[in-house]
Amino acid sequence: MNQRDLFIISFRFIRVRFLESLMVVLGLALGVAIISSLFSLARAYNYEMETQSNNPEQREIRVESNTGLSLLPGNKSPALKIVDTQRKKVIFTVSELVKARKACPDVEDGYISFGTRFSVTDTSALSRSEIKNFECKMVSPEYFTANNMEIAVGSIFTESDIHSANSVIVLDKKLATKLFPDEDSSIIGKNITLSSPISGGNLTFTVIGVLKYKNTGVTATDPTGNSGTAYCPYTLSLQYRSQKGLDTLSFSVPDIKRLKKAVYQLNNYFSSQYGINSILIHSSLDWEKDQKRVIIPIFSIITLFVGAGLLMASMNILNLMLARIARQKKNIGIMMAIGASRFDIFKLFLTESLTLGVMGGVLGCFIAFLLSWLLQLLLSPAGTGGGGPQLDVIRGAGPEISVTFSIMAVALLLTLILNAVFGIYPAYKASRTEPTDALRSE
Amino acid sequence: MIKLENAGKNYDLGAVKVAALKNINLLIEKGEFVSIMGPSGSGKSSLLHILGLLDKPTSGTYKLENYEVISLSDKELSRIRNQHFGFVFQSFNLFSEFNALDNVIMPMIYAKVSSKERKEKAKGLLASMGLEHRMYHFPNMLSGGEQQRVAIARSLANNPDLILADEPTGNLPSHMGAKILEILDKLNKESVTLIMVTHNEKIGRCGKRMIRLKDGEIVSDQVIKNRTNPLTDLQGE
Ligand SMILES: Nc1ncnc2c1ncn2[C@@H]1O[C@H](COP(=O)(O)OP(=O)(O)OP(=O)(O)O)[C@@H](O)[C@H]1O
Ligand SMILES: [Mg+2]
Predict the structure, then answer these.
(1) Distance from CA of A340 to the nearest CA of B (A)
(2) Is the ipTM of this complex over 0.85?
(3) Which fold has domain B2-233?
(4) Is A343 on the interface with B (CB under 8 A)?
């Protein structure tokens, strides 16, 4: 019997037992669909994590003095906090930054950054602006290169600006257009008077540069990101705080893949400098760990349920295939009488179940597409509502649940393997039928 | 040439052992028309299945032409069944999923006959059985006699040397049985060897040789002197 005849005959048996075949096909289709959807969900989540971690913020490592009071997440601490008053607060210097950078090859750039919030006091100069306050980062010039920020007009601050703590300010494009809706290049040289929450006093800044627009894709992690950000020399902050040094140093890695190594190197360096436990290192690894602590059990449970469901479906299919063979017993006997070998019978039934498997797989892919489309619809960012301005940040960064061809191929392969296993046993059983018994049966 | 020597068939049912056939010695030459008779349970079907290579004796030897059957592989056995044997059963045993034409085509599929050739052959065989108007009927649309003629057509698909018929008329009214025997007799005249199991004495006497079984043993093996002529003697019964 050649392949074509084999296929024609098995297809005929499938058609004759349509309802039964349909059940097998549907069972397999659901299996493929569920596996594919699960994979795409996992993939979407992974993609989320990756795009998140490609943000400059995720590539940042902060080193700070361990005061024994830290309540930051990731710092596993007992509920009752014992304040270690003996512990000396470490104050970093700028030269420290340079040295640490040299000691740790995976740290691309060290920079200094404090966040503060300025209120706009001089409304006369900014009559058209609706912004009352905004985020201002007090940084060292390295901050701009570390975060791939490019200047659009004007310039960033120089070493001498840092040195003499000049009140100069660089605005990002967003803030610039919000503060000065009508102007562009003429912004440079303008003065804005702002009040600081730290000192309470007013300070007049000169705008020296505007950054190029850059969609960082930062979302929930940046609660103040909606009105734009300004940058000024970090030495201004030291002035406000009347401190001799810095309590935080910031570093970043050029590639998120090097984060782990960099954290390790920094930890080694600072531990050797100040002693173990005297400094704390924060990075998005802490956040990721937290995320994974929640998400992994959830995925495990879903996978468990899906697995159990699939197993049940498979048993059902096995059962159906065995029942099918029991009902075909007489036909098997006749086939043997007219010249079928046991191997012919085996091939026939295997072809039958593989045909059902392929049909189930194809239908399953179709259902998977529908399912992923439905999931996408349910999880789309439009549903989150949120604040108006936040939407355009979120858009494009929402979870993208789609069944890719590789996922489909894997799911199909899995189902086919499963199907082959559950096809081989019944086909083998069929081939072991005794023709005399089969012919005696009615 | 078929040669059974001391052949026996035991069914082992755990506690009990059923001896379906005991000490069978049998020689059947080409062109014979052998009727096998005997009461129910005497082992007629068992013997026919062994002769037809659907089963193997549990003792003794079976020689087919020059082959020792016990040493043949499943593939070789199936090839012999396909190329040289034709089976006809009491309950017709057609594939209910296939129409008459496809039923006749089936053995030729196993024989790897080209699809055009086998279709022509099947049509010719059905026509020779007087079924040219029933080719696309499914078994459940055919009368018993028609079904049995389809089954005979199917058994002839690969030009067999031997036809094994297990009560071919058992499920048919006598006038249809007569027709079937007429066909079988004609085939025998065309030098096809025939082995036919039957309950009916008169039908049994259509053969040239009569073997009687009782409790799995051959109790008589005789040449039939006054044969029944299916054309005249079986009509109107
Ligand atoms: N698979 C089996 N297992 C056990 N015993 C069996 C089996 N097949 C047949 N037998 C026994 O073998 C004996 C012969 O059976 P067989 O079918 O050959 O009889 P038969 O002469 O064809 O009878 P009938 O005229 O009713 O068809 C019977 O006693 C039967 O019960
Ligand atoms: Mg019988």
Answers:
(1) 6
(2) yes
(3) Rossmann fold (3.40.50)
(4) yes
